[in-house]
Amino acid sequence: MPVEVRLLKVGMTMTEGTVEEWFIADGDQVQKGEMLYRLETEKVNMDVDAEGDGTVKHLVSAGTELGPGDVIGFIFAPDETIPDVLPTPTPLPGEEPVAEKKAPPPAAAAPAPAPKRAAGRRPAASPAARRLAAELDVDLADVEGTGPRGRITEGDVTAQADKAKTQDQPRRRQPSSPAARRLAGELGVDIDAVEGTGPGGRITRADVERAAEAAESTPAAEPMRGMRRTIAERMYASLRDTAQLTMEMEVDMEDAVKLRTQLVAEWESDGVRPSYTDIIILAAAKALTKHPRMHATLADDAILRHDAVHMGMAVALEEGLVVPVIRDAHAKDLKTIAVESRELAERARSGRLGLDDMSGGTFTVTSLGMYGVDTFTPILNTPESGILGVGRIYDGVAWHGDTPVQRKFLRLSLTWDHRVLDGAPAAEFLVEVRGYLEAPFRLLV
To answer: What is the per-residue pLDDT for 25?
Structure first.
């Protein structure tokens, strides 16, 4: 029997995912452990390895969204014959057996057409497809699903909405000259969508050329999906559902800069290079243990205070922002935090984070100092009630009596949820963080 390739479930909260890309083409050979496909979820993207050797047969094409555990293809062993009709996927517990599907030709990766649904049966659709259907006022009962086992995808919903528009608003063919029609074919212009300026609305060559130029100058619309869509939804919900305020505080970093310089040299042989963000993460973690009102979340009209500090650290990727979590940061030393933060950042940039790596955070630190930013307003990573923004280190002046002395400074920006705590306890927490950074030896004891 061939090996079933199922959509990998990463983390307990995953409800859907997308086969972003097949690394092995339909009908090509793969070896166990070789990268087979790239999975896109709402929070992470990751490469999934093959679980066996043999010939890969796709059941779904790249871009298909479906549920965790759904069969997306097969791997046939070298001594197996690939049938015209692919075997029926083994149902997961609680699933009904599905009908056999014909193997797609080698050049095609699209799934076979889905069978008709039984009358009165609730159509299977991804949560994203249901949200989109509600937005576009599409009845899912009218949509034919093209996903595995007839599952309705976002593309199916969009196609149905476009079909309804076409049916409601039939287009009238505009008169056009033969030369204009030939030019439209050469330039790939839909001549029925061109507005004619000739006699009686007749479409001319000049009209087609203007339409082609307009199409080239119009920026292509990129669908918002995956991580970018999740970030947009969560940030909007964070601002909508919480009472966010931000305060700033300047910190004298002269001694912290000296400490980091010494530790970089001290730990060089171990391959450990602490960053300023590592130092601030530890300072914030220790301060949270002394200010429990800052270290709390609002849940079901009750304020839940946390004992352990699970510190989120924002990592910027090309496709968006992820926040992996350093567990029990308050109980770890600076060297351990430096090692863990570097490992988490590398895994994030290589797409190897799991959903569990980014869940359970109780507070977040985010830095834009490396971009030369002095101060900014970070948005809460809900349900957390606090996030600390870190700016760049810059040269400033401190006064020793009447004598100006050049020192290193940075600005911290604390955003907090006013529903959970007031400004005074938030300020007291920020003062505590500043105290650790201005006397950083306290972080080492």
So the answer is: 92
